[in-house]
Write a structure and sequence with these properties.
- The longest helix is centred in the N-terminal third of the chain and has 23 residues, at about 1-25.
- Helix 2 (about 30-40) packs antiparallel against helix 3 and helix 3 runs antiparallel to helix 4 (about 70-85).
- The protein is mostly helical.
- Helices cover about 80% and strands about 0% of the residues.
- It comes from Rhizobium lentis.
- Keywords: Signal.
- This is Pentapeptide MXKDX repeat protein.
């Protein structure tokens, strides 16, 4: 009985991982851009200055990619910005 329960938990966890990974990727749209910008603006701690600068650079590249209709590149840069901020 315990083996069946453990196996069911492992199967459920394995099937949930792709869904969770998919949700972490940001959408490349104005609302997401504004949310990321407000999150960056909230980083006021001087110790986070380097993280904030890196995230700002990634957001600039994301905005450029969005303007050029390169949505995959935009998503990648937004994800990199989130990682720079320590959100992922």
């Amino acid at each position: 009985m315990l083996k069946h329960t453990a196996a069911a938990i492992v199967v459920a966890a394995a099937s949930a991982l792709p869904v969770l990974a998919q949700d972490t990727m940001m959408k490349c749209d104005e609302a997401s851009m504004m949310k990321m910008q407000s999150d960056m603006d909230a980083m006021t701690d001087p110790a986070m200055k380097e993280k904030k600068e890196m995230a700002s650079k990634e957001m600039m590249m994301a905005k450029d990619s969005m303007m050029a209709n390169k949505m995959d590149d935009c998503k990648m840069h937004m994800d990199n910005a989130m990682k720079s901020m320590g959100k992922m």
